[in-house]
Amino acid sequence: MPQPPVFFADRADMKRDLILLSGAEGRHAAAARRLRPGERADVGDGAGLVAECVVVAVHPGRGLELAVRARQELPRPEPVVTVVQAIPKGDRGELAVAEMTEVGVDRIMPWAAARCVPVWRAERGARSLARWRVTAREAAKQSRRAWIPEVTELVSTADVAQVITKAACAIVLEPDAAQSLAHLSPPDSGDLVLIVGPEGGLTDEENAAFCTAGAMPCRLGPTVLRTSTAGTVAAAVLLSRSGRW
């Protein structure tokens, strides 16, 4: 039997016995998903609270009314996986965000690496960041996640170095590194930080800053992945070895 679809609502609305799923979320549920009275649907707040619901009424053009049958509060998974993602070209950034969300990444940090081709400035940067956040939200629904990954503001190399100093384990993906990520034993708690460089690779200054802050260079395998896929594959390796999968 297929699992019920997942939608998101405000936590305050989820405290009620009847939830009115309105706006774009409600219109999508009624029109695109074509849910009808008596059918199941789950509603979450994106921060761990999930309500198991059944549709009681459909309001054309406005959304759905759902009756809450049960609620559960799911803790944030441990360890927390953060991917520092150098900004890829074109729509590959949204592809990377969607795939990382689907595998279970908890935090995505867009990074303005020295060799990134795109430059996020002013309105362009705001629009790009908004697209990444919308992509994370939609991918969280598709993959039935109780927690929507946090997509932070754009970070600099100095910001990344600060994140490394506070991490339980920090890894810089390097194709020529001696250490294999597959042989790493990650800690059971705290922040696991993965740093994914741009297509042109990291500069010597970036490498030095990250290693000084405490990051460990690791390779993924015998092939070189694009920046938009490396984070997803590396996160999957860590999640499988951390016990979260």
Note down, in words, how this protein is organized.
The strands form two sheets. The protein has a six-stranded parallel beta sheet, with helices on both faces. A five-stranded mixed beta sheet has the order 1-3-4-5-2. Strand 4 and strand 5 (63-73) form a beta hairpin. The protein is α/β, with parallel strands linked by helices and 245 residues long. It contains seven helices and eleven strands. Helix 3 runs parallel beside helix 4, helix 3 (92-103) packs parallel to helix 7 and helix 5 (157-166) runs parallel beside helix 6 (204-213). The relative contact order is 0.15. It has helices at residues 11-14, 23-32, 92-103, 122-142, 157-166, 204-213, 227-242; strands at residues 6-8, 18-21, 40-44, 49-59, 63-73, 80-86, 107-111, 150-151, 169-173, 191-196, 216-218. It is 34% helix and 25% strand. The longest helix has 21 residues, at 122-142. The chain has two domains: 6-73, Ribosomal Protein L25, Chain P, CATH 2.40.240.20; 80-242, 3-Layer(aba) Sandwich (Alpha/beta knot).
**What is the architecture of the largest domain at the second tier of CATH?**
3-Layer(aba) Sandwich
**Which CATH class of the largest domain applies here?**
Alpha Beta
Task: Supply the number of helical segments.
Answer: 7
Succession of helices and strands: EHEHEEEEHEHEHEEHEH
CATH homologous superfamily (4th level) name of the largest domain: SPOUT methyltransferase, trefoil knot domain
Seen as an oligomer or otherwise, the chain set is: single chain
How does the overall form come out from the CA principal axes? elongated
Cα separation of the termini: 22 Å
Report Rg: 20 Å
> Approximately how much beta-strand content do the residues carry?
25-35%
